[in-house]
Amino acid sequence: MTTLARATDTLTRDALTVLQPGFAGTTAPDWLLRRLGEGLASVALFGRNVTSPEQVAALTAQLRAEREDVLVAIDEEGGDVTRLEVRTGSSFPGNHALGAVDDVGLTRAVAAELGRRLAAAGVDFNWAPSADVNSNPDNPVIGVRSFGADTDLVARHTAAYVTGMQSAGVATCTKHFPGHGDTGIDSHHAMPRIDVDADVLAERDLVPFRAAVAAGTRAVMSAHILVPALDPDLPATLSRRILTDLLRGEMGYDGLIVTDGIEMKAIAGTYGIERGTVLAIAAGADAICVGGGLSDEGTVRRLGDALVEAVRAGELPEERLADAAERVRALARWTTANRPGQGASDTADGDVGLRAARRALRITVAGESAPLTEPAYVAAFTPVANIAVGDETPWGVAAELGRLLPGTETGSFNGADAGREALAAAGSRRIVAVVRDEHRHPWMAAALDVLLAARPDTIVVEMGVPRAQARGALHLATHGAARVCGRAAAEAIAGV
Fold first, then answer.
1. CB 398 within 8 A of CB 408
2. Which of 134, 149, 131, 143 is nearest to 436 (CA)?
3. Is 157 a catalytic residue?
4. Which ranges of 361-468 does DSSP label H, i.e. alpha helix?
5. CA 348 – CA 344 distance, rounded (Å)
6. 188, 224, 475, 479: which one is catalytic?
7. Which long-range contacts does 358-361 make (Cβ < 8 Å, 24+ apart)?
């Protein structure tokens, strides 16, 4: 077995170049800095690496002191999926809110401002936007991360997002190719399968990716999904038919192809991360995202060694690995050339996220409803968060409503007795019930039934995909659970 720590030849440098690993901590560990000197070209940041934008800026400066052209990647969609504001909630609504407004100029402006903030922190590669058409309302992992269920709407907002963010010098990575919207399984846990005809895929799922390619997206992320109409045997991440023949050949895409997290169970639980890495590069992927769950030097060594050994065994053409590494370096050249200079902050639009969240708010009133003027009780019916969103980012309206109506209290409830428990906790106070994807959680719908039967004056705030019937004395659909979405809802409840 090779040992990358001692290897300095071109083959092993290329193997390191195609990896996009994460790490633990808020400063770069010694092993990561050493690998940058040996050929590692990308570093991935996750919520565990972030305490503030200033800390991230210091971290990225530390990385660039070792390698000036390093790609610093992050999974910053805005909305529910935020890493830069993982402790507070995002200053930007997510895709579903932007799709609800359906103003491509606003989407472009939001993406530009989010990109500006990433660039100011030294991040130059964003694994966003999601171009998935949320055609399956029971999808457990996409939901509000999608611009919507309408193909043309998703396509035009995907293009606007790409244009806006890349105007700030941050490369976009449009995901999850060829489309994760029609799945009923989260690929973090198992292998999803989409059983529709190729014509449906072409007319529905592929259209937003074509729009992203036309808009100049610098990267595309593959999905760990099985799509038999395109490849009956291999998931998209490992499929030459999908990555090379379709994306590069038929769609004419020539940028970087990145895998979704290789340690996700859809790949790790079926092929293993080493074999999955080799098959992905052989299929046409250029970079391997890893580190959401695995963040140690041993993982980097294992994956790099697997690539080197596959080349030496004749299982992976050396030219394919070299081509992949060159595409990574080409993107690094683009981000380095487009890195903002002094004065970039002059174009800041710090309020654009809140303005967008306010515009996305949909209010349904049953009869007359006066603004709340007294402290309320916020009952948050909390589902299990998917891994992409995580459970460390605060959500809801309690904090923002408490700021407007001091004395407001809150509690979190779930399960069969959630409604009765919330009633008991609220006492005589007016109840604000906060839900997330009520249509996907029968226990949540039952809890609202209990609340509304006993307290018909209950205010309902839906912070997921608003597919369930609007009910309550006042119903607010925020189209996402970002901090600014909570603020917009709180303002409406309090009549501010």
1. yes
2. 143
3. no
4. 398-404, 418-426, 442-454
5. 8
6. 188
7. 358/488, 358/491, 359/101, 359/103, 359/106, 360/93, 360/97, 360/98, 360/100, 360/101, 360/478, 360/479, 360/480, 360/485, 360/488, 361/476, 361/477, 361/478, 361/485, 361/488, 361/489, 361/492
Is 260 assigned a catalytic role?
yes
363: tokens are 């209010």
The active-site residue, picked from 186, 260, 305, 437, is 260
- Which tokens sit at 249? 């050949």
Quick check: bond before 178 cis, omega within 30? Answer: yes
What span, in angstroms and rounded, lies between the C-alpha atoms of 291 and 5? 19
Q: What is the pLDDT along the chain (496 residues), one digit of tens a residue?
A: 334 434 448 999 999 999 999 999 999 999 999 999 999 999 999 999 999 999 999 999 999 999 999 999 999 999 999 999 999 999 999 999 999 999 999 999 999 999 999 999 999 999 999 999 999 988 888 999 999 999 999 999 999 999 999 999 999 999 999 999 998 877 787 889 999 999 999 999 999 999 999 999 999 999 999 999 999 999 999 999 999 999 999 999 999 999 999 999 899 999 999 999 999 999 999 999 997 888 999 999 999 999 999 999 999 999 999 999 999 999 999 999 998 864 455 578 889 999 999 999 999 998 777 899 999 999 999 887 766 777 788 899 999 999 999 999 999 999 999 999 999 999 999 999 999 999 999 999 999 999 999 999 999 999 999 999 999 999 999 999 999 999 999 999 999 9
The model's pTM? 0.94
